[in-house]
Every structure is written in structure tokens, then in C-alpha cells.
Amino acid sequence: VSSLGACDLLKMKIDKSKAEGLVAGILTKEQITASSVTCPDDQAATKGHTFECTAKVGEVDVHFRMEVLD
């Protein structure tokens, strides 16, 4: 029997690739080219939770503060 409770299995997480795609889309809309976009793994999908994604634009790291709204 596993020691993981049902709550652990049901915790909603942010889809990392979707968050990265959102940042890339914002940059594309502004006609800015990023060589990479990274967001952290295992971010909670709970209202008010914040985390930071980073886009590499030229030699500069551009930080995006992400917040779960609902």
C-alpha cells in the first residue's frame, strides 16, 4: 500500500510547456525573439500562486512573474 494520500495525487500543477508557450507568445506578439524560455517544474495551480519564468533575449535574461488567477 502506497503512503501517498489521495490529496497528493489530485494536486493540480501548472503545465510547464504551456506556461513557456504563453511567455513565448507574448514575446512574439511584441516582435521580440527569445532563444529560450524556461519556467520551473511542479508549480501549484492554485489561485494566487506566483512563480517566475525566464526568457533569454540576446544576452539578457528577461523575467516574467506569473500568477495563477483562477
Outline of this structure?
With 70 residues, this protein is an alpha+beta fold. The protein contains 2 helices and 3 strands. Helices cover 27% and strands 27% of the residues.
Notes on the protein architecture:
The chain contains two helices and three strands; from the N terminus they run H-H-E-E-E. The longest helix is centred in the N-terminal third of the chain and has 14 residues, at 16-29. The chain has a three-stranded antiparallel beta sheet, with helices on one face. The radius of gyration is 15 Å and the shape is elongated. The protein starts with 5 loop residues before the first helix and ends with a strand. By secondary structure, the chain is of the alpha+beta class. A hairpin with a 2-residue loop joins strand 2 (50-57) and strand 3 (60-67). The model is unreliable at 1-7 (pLDDT under 50).
Content-based structural category: alpha+beta
User: What's the mean pLDDT score?
Assistant: 89
Order of helices and strands: HHEEE
Strands, total number: 3
Task: Give the neighbour order of strands across the main sheet.
Answer: 1-2-3
Main pleated sheet: 3 strands, antiparallel
Helix content: 25-40%
Question: How would the global form be characterised?
Answer: elongated
Number of helices: 2
Question: Radius of gyration from the CA trace?
Answer: 15 Å
Q: Would you identify the regions where 5 or more consecutive residues have pLDDT less than 50?
A: 1-7
Beta-strand portion reads 25-35%
End-to-end C-alpha gap = 34 Å
